[in-house]
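target protein:
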Amino acid sequence: MIEPVMPTYARIELDFERGEGASLYTADGRRYLDFGSGIAVTLLGHSHPALVKAVQDQAGKLWHVSNLYQIEGQKKLARKLTDNTFADTVFFCNSGAEAMEGCIKTARKYHSANGHPERYRIITFEGAFHGRTLATMAAGGQEKILAGFGPKTDGFDQAPFGDLKAAEALIGPETAAILIEPVQGEGGIREADRAFLTGLRQLCDKHGLLLLMDEVQTGMGRTGKLFAHQWTDIAPDVMGVAKGIGGGFPLGAFLATEEAAKGMTAGTHGTTYGGNLLAMAAGNAVADVVLADGFMDRVNEVASRFKQGLAAIVDRYPGVVEGIRGKGLLLGLKCVVPNGEVVTAMREQHLLTVPAGDNVVRLLPPLTVTDEELEKGLEAIESACAHLAEKAGAS
């Protein structure tokens, strides 16, 4: 008999009642250190006072009016984003999948507005994850996600991740854009190197394509820059953002240059909930914290210490983990044993992490993680690896 909650998740038998910082607490008082951050969402940790106050204050005034009317919070957050990125304009939505749908639509509409509606195809990369709508599943191209949902939505061509020549070979008269995650999250914390991203930018410029970036997981300071592509000297034309931008409140956005957004005129795209007053209260509060002087410096300092601690663990337990991937506080442990076993062993040490593709465990502490929390996290990772190493030796 089916449960009232549709059983589309293999849920862990944990139910949390409250949280503070990087800690989550069950109803019976057990504490877990959260280095999964709700899959890179709770950017400022749990119950951050600035975020709580902003949402509580707005909840007592007005929640929702729809996008039929002016929303001052959208103007404020859009200005913060455009002032600190390549973009000239922002559309607010509710999720990462919606943000990426918006990127795809913007690219197609751009070419249509330029008199080339035949240019609708988008080049994507193996291992990508862009969401679970029909279009974003097709963009990701993963068979395990596409299976059972009928014909794959047309319009996407895939190249191996990091292979510039293969991407160029796919460009044809119907190509509209190239879509890339600067760091693949679900795909195993695989970082696109600077030369590859630069090469993609050059291909787009040469062939009149738009460069789309999926920064849903990497954005809002997760890698030590506001957005991961800012570690390079290139920028996209359109970019999808979600997860951390709302600090746990459902919020997404896509950002674009004025030129790329030329086709996105009144009536071409819309959302009922996107960018409502509660969401904007959360988004503005998150942005104010992340954009404050010194915040990103500390993220990079903490990330450096975290990586050093992880490197020592990798050296001590080569039969369990073999390497570290990622940037900033978007890190992955490449595992030797099945990553599910590592995630379970860490959870038994009261540390929450997230599995990823390519046998990787994602480590995504909040950007506000304290020195004490970081040390406790490293101790838990060490204990989990020691347990697995002992288990392997016994077998």
In short: The CA atoms of residues 182 and 308 lie 23 Å apart. The chain has a mean pLDDT of 97.
